[in-house]
């Protein structure tokens, strides 16, 4: 009889025997493979933490003892054990989120899925428990060794060691990887522990080893303080790493041996002060296709065949693929171009460049702040760094962009993948803030390509700038079909379409050029003339954008970012400064944390559809709302539209003559 369906909460684990816990682990793995294969999601990381999560919930009492996952993509098993076993709509609207989400369960504490923050959360929560008389509660942070490459974890460790009278347990989930094999000195140190002969011996005998402690061992760990180091640390020499921080260390522990995990976690729980439990796990455990995937062991997958791991549908050429090829071509012609990333070599498309130019790639680990400032130093030394990140992670290094790159006029190019709406990954992974955030950096130049050819040419233009930061941003998914310009203006602005009259100027930022053209077609069917342009370089606002805006009655900006402080706001400000009072509608996403859903659903919610935009434009022109159909075939004009539009054009022309 299956065990998993009978688990509605963590305390249901208390009645299970060790043999039943092992059976439950096997069931959970089968469940994950079968269900994540249908929906897509983070498969490899969750297969690696099955036994660890079972042991955590057996030893600790969530939610009274909060468990914080760093990052949240390894929380699927946690969801299953806390009563959330309907994975049919995982990462889809109405279904479970791909990360912890407070609205789903009181067992979910931290929703942000940006790495290296869990120890700071745990530090704050444990201090609050102590300050409010809840010293009996424990706080557990599960942090991957990849996250230990981020400086924030070490800032937290420094402060955690400042006050040892707290019930705080740090579980280092050491699988040797984050998205890909973890890099840097910390990773090399962990690897030495993981592969040492003494560890392999402990790995084989871990059950007997930990049971040997018994009640006496627990009393010993409760009693030691100050300079006395944990007994187990002598076997792995990790005391060298943590002794100066005065944090006790247990391990390494076999992360797939539930009794050993429970024993170690119970020792840590009983200790009465911060403890690090070093757990060795295998990413993709129990699923051969994941283990055979050398790139990232199925870190994140789309829909796959659960038996073979083969993708069920080709996704087409992605924006990341186009960038990857363009960068290799650029690197072959420009030896000063080097590439940088923060633990995302493959996801951001740098792997081909690394294969071609292995000495010209720097992966700094999960350390965006360091990456950006180091890039400024590389630029000072005569190189041109191309720093590839997800757009959502750019905020982690904003101060460095502002003060180290911008202030020093460093020639650094930032390539932001997954910009705009990312869909199923939810609020912490949408790339909505980069346009608003980065454009306040003095001298910065921001481009948003509308198609593959524009990405290639804008990357070329970006690395030619050696006295200011440049940014290229593009969305997640397949690249848009090529949209040729009918004219390129003197400052590089592309005109994509001209209507019979100059009623509306539609400014499509990046892939929203396609949306702008659709809106223009609908307006044309209603007798309203629209000009569509792609600025290519959205920031700064180009002179020809100002010139075109002065000739139109209405300007509409369309951008895949929050409209507060976005490109539309900048256009409005520039027009005001130029004394042009053309009305501007800034269309973008609301300044909200947007939940997980499909890209199409999110854009529809925000009113960013061609039908809705065209309807609103006609309402402004006519003073009434009318349904606007897609112009496929004969579309009747709304009564009086042409006459009213003609009158508006005449009034606008007279106003222009008065200005002159």
From TrEMBL:
Protein name, per record: 1-deoxy-D-xylulose-5-phosphate synthase
PANTHER family reported for this sequence: 1-D-DEOXYXYLULOSE 5-PHOSPHATE SYNTHASE-RELATED, 1-DEOXY-D-XYLULOSE-5-PHOSPHATE SYNTHASE, CHLOROPLASTIC
Pfam families reported in the protein's UniProt record: DXP_synthase_N, Transket_pyr, Transketolase_C
Species whose genome carries this gene: Microbacterium azadirachtae
Binding residues for thiamine diphosphate: 73, 113-115, 146-147, 175, 287, 368
InterPro entries reported for this sequence: Dxylulose-5-P_synthase, THDP-binding, Transketo_C/PFOR_II, Transketolase-like_Pyr-bd, Transketolase_BS, Transketolase_C, Transketolase_CS
Domain Transketolase-like pyrimidine-binding span(s) in chain numbering: 317-482
Catalytic activity: D-glyceraldehyde 3-phosphate + pyruvate + H(+) = 1-deoxy-D-xylulose 5-phosphate + CO2
One record GO biological process: terpenoid biosynthetic process
Family from the record: Belongs to the transketolase family. DXPS subfamily.
């Amino acid at each position: 009889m299956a065990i998993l369906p009978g688990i509605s909460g963590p305390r249901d684990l208390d009645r299970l025997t060790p043999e039943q816990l092992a059976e439950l682990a096997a069931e959970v793995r089968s469940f994950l493979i079968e269900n994540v294969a249908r929906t897509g999601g983070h498969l490899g990381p969750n297969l690696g933490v099955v036994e660890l999560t079972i042991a955590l919930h057996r030893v600790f009492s969530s939610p009274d003892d909060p468990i914080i996952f760093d990052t949240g993509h390894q929380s699927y098993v946690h969801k299953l054990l806390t009563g959330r076993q309907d994975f049919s709509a995982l990462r889809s609207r109405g279904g479970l989120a791909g990360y912890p989400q407070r609205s789903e369960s009181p067992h979910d504490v931290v929703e942000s899925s940006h790495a290296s923050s869990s120890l700071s959360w745990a530090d704050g929560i444990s201090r609050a428990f102590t300050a409010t008389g809840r010293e009996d509660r424990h706080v557990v942070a599960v942090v991957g060794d990849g996250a230990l490459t981020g400086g924030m974890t070490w800032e937290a460790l420094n402060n955690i060691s400042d006050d040892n009278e707290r019930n705080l347990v740090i579980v280092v989930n050491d699988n040797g990887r984050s998205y890909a094999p973890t890099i840097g000195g910390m990773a090399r140190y962990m690897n030495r522990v993981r592969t040492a002969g003494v560890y392999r011996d402990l790995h084989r005998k871990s059950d007997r080893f930990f049971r040997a402690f018994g009640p006496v061992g627990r009393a010993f760990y409760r009693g030691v303080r100050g300079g006395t180091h944990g007994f187990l640390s002598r076997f792995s020499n990790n005391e060298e790493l943590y002794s100066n921080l005065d944090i006790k260390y247990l391990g390494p522990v076999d992360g797939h041996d539930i009794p050993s995990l429970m024993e170690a976690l119970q020792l840590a729980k009983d200790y009465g002060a911060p403890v690090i439990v070093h757990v060795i796990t295998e990413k993709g455990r129990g699923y051969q296709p994941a283990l055979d995937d050398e790139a990232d062991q199925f870190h994140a997958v789309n829909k796959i065949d659960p038996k073979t791991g083969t993708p069920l549908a080709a996704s087409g050429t992605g924006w990341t693929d186009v960038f990857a090829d363009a960068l290799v071509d650029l690197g072959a012609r420009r030896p000063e171009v080097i590439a940088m990333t923060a633990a995302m070599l493959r996801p951001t498309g740098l792997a081909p460049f690394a294969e071609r130019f292995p000495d010209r790639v720097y992966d700094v680990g999960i350390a965006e702040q360091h990456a950006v400032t180091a890039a400024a130093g590389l630029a000072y030394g005569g190189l041109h760094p191309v720093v590839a990140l997800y757009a959502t992670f750019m905020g982690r290094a904003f101060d460095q962009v502002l003060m180290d790159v911008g202030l020093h006029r460093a020639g650094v190019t930032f390539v932001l993948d997954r910009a705009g709406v990312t869909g199923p990954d939810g609020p912490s992974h949408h790339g909505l803030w980069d346009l608003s955030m980065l454009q306040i950096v003095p001298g910065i130049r921001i481009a948003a390509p509308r198609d593959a050819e524009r990405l290639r040419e804008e990357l070329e233009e970006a690395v030619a700038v050696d006295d200011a930061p440049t940014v290229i941003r593009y969305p997640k998914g397949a690249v848009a079909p090529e949209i040729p310009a009918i004219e390129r203006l003197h400052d590089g602005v592309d005109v994509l379409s001209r209507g019979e009259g100059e009623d509306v100027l539609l400014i499509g930022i990046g892939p929203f050029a396609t949306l702008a053209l659709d809106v223009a077609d609908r307006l044309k069917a209603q007798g309203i003339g629209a000009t569509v342009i792609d600025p290519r370089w959205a920031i700064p606002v180009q002179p020809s954008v100002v010139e075109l805006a002065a000739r139109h009655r209405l300007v509409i900006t369309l951008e895949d970012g929050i409209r507060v402080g976005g490109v539309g706001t900048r256009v409005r400000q520039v027009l005001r400064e130029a004394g042009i009072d053309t009305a501007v509608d800034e269309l973008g996403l609301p300044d909200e944390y947007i939940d997980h859903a499909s890209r199409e659903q999110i854009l529809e919610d925000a009113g960013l559809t061609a039908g809705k935009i065209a309807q609103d434009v006609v309402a402004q022109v006519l003073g009434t709302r009318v349904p606007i159909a897609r112009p496929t075939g004969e579309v009747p004009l709304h009564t009086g539209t042409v006459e009213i539009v003609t009158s508006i054009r005449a009034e606008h022309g007279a106003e222009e003559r008065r200005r002159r």
